[in-house]
Design goal:
By secondary structure, the chain is of the alpha/beta class. It has a domain of 195 residues: Vaccinia Virus protein VP39 (Rossmann fold, 3-Layer(aba) Sandwich), CATH 3.40.50. It contains ten helices and seven strands. Strands 3-2-1-4-5-7-6 form a seven-stranded mixed sheet, with helices on one face. Helix 8 runs parallel beside helix 9 and helix 9 runs parallel beside helix 10. The protein is globular.
Length: 282
């Protein structure tokens, strides 16, 4: 097994300086709007750096286990070198739907349910920053081991403090990054009750199992605005997720066709408000 700790420590300081410098100049240009071309160039470089950081691709050439095709499609786990299992294809999808919802003035924030090390949310925050737009980024997770993951439960469990540190390492731990700790069976209902006026432009789900997804459909999906997006991280590769979506659609007369991204992920664009029928599930 390749020991990534030494190169991680060696490059972490330089990566943090690069991100901080790019963010500082990016914010300056966003405020002053004095050089549109320079702003776009900085945004592109900043996003590329964040993308390479969260996927672990920033260590190309230093990690012999790195596989470009696997990282592109999210077919591997990036070990200690990355902050997301999501590959380049799914990250690009996040960027695309953010840009699209903003271009069409779809109101609302970004929410991810199930975040592992926080990489997808970190990337979403970076996209909004480069576009000069502030939206809330809701980061929901148990932030502790979940028994359903079996032998992988400890590896997949990342503490809330570590997630916050990961955001901070990219210079993106701001007041609009909102964390919610706990199992979705309780946190989503509580959130919906506490914040009934919430609007979401993008809802991204990555919780692997039937019941957490059903809770998400009933308590959070109704917040997604018309023209917004629902993204499934693993509906193609996880039958339980596909079954939950199939049942929810059948119970509510929905007929959304999934747009597949890779061997795991797919998404839909919400074309009308979702009004849950609680008589079908409790």
């Amino acid at each position: 097994m390749y020991n990534v700790i030494e190169p991680v420590n060696r490059y972490k300081h330089n990566k943090t300086l690069l991100l901080a410098s790019a963010k500082q100049e990016l914010l300056y240009n966003n405020i002053h709007h004095d050089d549109t071309d320079r702003l776009k160039e900085l945004g592109t470089k900043f996003l590329r750096t964040v993308e390479n950081g969260v996927t672990g691709a920033i260590y190309r050439g230093h990690n012999p286990e790195f596989n470009e095709e696997n990282r592109k499609l999210g077919n591997d786990w990036p070990g200690a070198c990355g902050h997301t299992m999501v590959g380049f294809v799914r990250l690009n999808n996040i960027k695309t739907v953010i840009e699209d919802t903003l271009a069409r003035s779809v109101p609302g924030d970004f929410m991810e349910l199930g975040v592992w090390r926080g990489g997808s949310c970190i990337y979403a925050a970076a996209v909004y920053l480069t576009l000069g737009v502030q939206r809330n980024i809701y980061v929901f997770d148990a932030f502790e081991p979940i028994s359903g993951y079996g032998e992988s439960s400890d590896y997949l469990a990342v503490s809330l403090d570590q997630i916050k540190q990961n955001f901070d390492n990219y210079g993106l731990l701001e007041s609009n990054i909102i964390f919610r700790k706990g199992l979705f069976e309780s946190t989503l209902k509580e959130f919906a009750s506490e914040y009934p006026q919430t609007k979401l432009a993008i809802l991204r789900m990555d919780s692997n199992f039937y019941d957490p997804h059903m809770h998400s459909f009933y308590y959070v999906l109704p917040f997604v605005q018309t023209g917004g997006y629902l993204i499934f991280d693993d509906i193609v590769s996880h039958p339980a997720v596909a079954a939950a979506w199939r049942d929810f659609q059948a119970w509510h007369g929905l007929a959304y066709e999934l747009i597949q991204l890779d061997h795991h992920s797919a998404y839909v664009q919400i074309t009308a408000p979702v009004v849950p029928d609680f008589s079908r599930w409790s």
